[in-house]
């Protein structure tokens, strides 16, 4: 896997292997194609973006609510009924899984993690948005993690 990163190449199998090593599997996953269908339904899930503010500002999934992984407190969702369908995401799904664990422990009953995070969402061809509208820019977190983002325009730092 390090060789693939060093060469700047990725494969779906390499990405899946990397994710397998990161995830604790403490939440059910939702794949990007399934989430896209959910977002077209009348009753949409609450999307929570658990990345840093600078990542969210570059782009996010349509309608996503920002909750910073580093400062997240369950009390931020006091307005959200515990049976609300919630889908969390971050760059690859690690930070969102941690926030989802907090939500489950607090009694939220329908919590899912976007498999592969925003990287997989974009890699599968689904749209992201900034405050200005649809964009191809995605905050790649760091150059080491950016290797997993195969589509879109990678952004590092603040845009």
Question: Total number of β-strand segments?
Answer: 9
Report the mean per-residue pLDDT as an integer.
91
Net shape: globular
Provide the CATH top-level class. Alpha Beta
| Proportion of residues in extended strands | 15-25%
Pfam families: Rhodanese
Organism: Pontibacter actiniarum
GO molecular function: thiosulfate-cyanide sulfurtransferase activity
Domain Rhodanese: 41-130
SSE diagram, text form:
Elements: H1 2-7, H2 12-22, E1 29-30, H3 32-40, E2 46-49, H4 53-58, E3 65-66, E4 86-89, H5 94-105, E5 111-114, H6 117-123, E6 128-130, E7 133-135, E8 137-139, H7 143-146, E9 153-155
Parallel strand pairs: 1-5, 2-3, 2-4, 4-5, 8-9
Antiparallel strand pairs: 6-7
Keywords:
alpha/beta, two-stranded antiparallel ribbon, globular, Thiosulphate_STrfase_CS, 159 residues, Oxidized Rhodanese, domain 1, Rhodanese-like_dom, GlpE_sulfurtransferase, five-stranded parallel beta sheet
Report a brief summary of the structure.
By secondary structure, the chain is α/β, with parallel strands linked by helices. The chain has seven helices and nine strands, in the order ααβαβαββαβαβββαβ.
What does this structure look like?
- With 159 residues, this protein is α/β, with parallel strands linked by helices.
- It has a single domain (2-155), classed as Rhodanese-like domain (Oxidized Rhodanese, domain 1, 3-Layer(aba) Sandwich).
- It is built from seven helices and nine strands.
- It has helices at 2-7, 12-22, 32-40, 53-58, 94-105, 117-123, 143-146; strands at residues 29-30, 46-49, 65-66, 86-89, 111-114, 128-130, 133-135, 137-139, 153-155.
- It has a five-stranded parallel sheet. Strands 6-7 form a two-stranded antiparallel ribbon. It has a two-stranded parallel ribbon with strand order 8-9.
- Strand 4 (86-89), helix 5 (94-105) and strand 5 form a beta-alpha-beta unit.
- The two termini are 29 Å apart.
């Amino acid at each position: 896997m390090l060789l693939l990163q060093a060469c700047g190449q990725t494969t779906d199998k390499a990405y899946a292997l990397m994710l397998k090593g990161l995830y604790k599997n403490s939440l059910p996953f939702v794949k990007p194609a399934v989430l896209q269908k959910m977002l077209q339904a009348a009753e949409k899930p609450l999307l929570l973006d658990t990345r840093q503010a600078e990542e969210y500002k570059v782009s996010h999934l349509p309608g996503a609510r920002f909750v910073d992984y580093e400062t997240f407190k369950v009390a931020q969702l006091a307005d959200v009924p515990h049976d609300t369908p919630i889908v969390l995401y971050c760059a690859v799904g690690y930070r969102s899984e941690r926030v989802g664990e907090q939500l489950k422990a607090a009694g939220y009953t329908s919590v899912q993690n976007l498999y592969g995070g925003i990287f997989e969402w974009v890699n599968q061809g689904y749209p992201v948005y900034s405050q200005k509208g649809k964009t191809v820019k995605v905050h790649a977190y760091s150059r080491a993690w950016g290797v997993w983002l195969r589509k879109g325009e990678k952004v590092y730092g603040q845009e």
